[in-house]
Amino acid sequence: MNDTSSAFSCHPIAFVRSPYARRIDAPHQPTVVEGTETGAVAEAIIEFTADFPAIAFRDLAGFERIWLVFVFHRSEGWKAEVRPPRGGGKRSVLATRSPHRPNAIGLSAVELVGVEEHALRVRGMDLLDGTPILDIKPYVPYADAFPDARAGWIDGIDATLGRHSAPGPRKPRGTPAK
Prior knowledge:
The protein is mostly beta strands and about 180 residues long. It is built from 2 helices and 8 strands; from the N terminus they run ββββββββαα. A 6-stranded antiparallel beta barrel has the order 1-2-7-6-3-8. Strand 4 and strand 5 form a beta hairpin. It starts with 13 loop residues before the first strand and ends in a 17-residue tail after the last helix.
């Protein structure tokens, strides 16, 4: 068994520059934009830190999608069970995409629009402005796509409400709807 007392250290290689300043503004998933202010898929910039070498990302040109490994930097802790937007009752946190996780690490697939001098232009962003990026990996369809995979409790929600029934962002409590 491995020593569980050892810690890992990660440092951001980039930061997100997105139109989303608050959690309620951002979609729950990159492709679920209903309820956002514009109702459109957002564009954003992944801005690399000054010391990160451009040679490390230049060959991303030509990839249509990339995976962003990031930190939920505004997470305020976690619980073993959470109430997901589509899940009805409580679900175990590891069976959800909750931002409140044992380690505040997230994964998001976005469309790569362009490789720029010291940044990436992306579309389909669901991350808040200032989100630290720990790593970026290319999306490779033959290895990353499993369209016939089962999705546990989510399959039951899809069968009842439809596959694209995910809600958009919630408005803050006490704020009247527009």
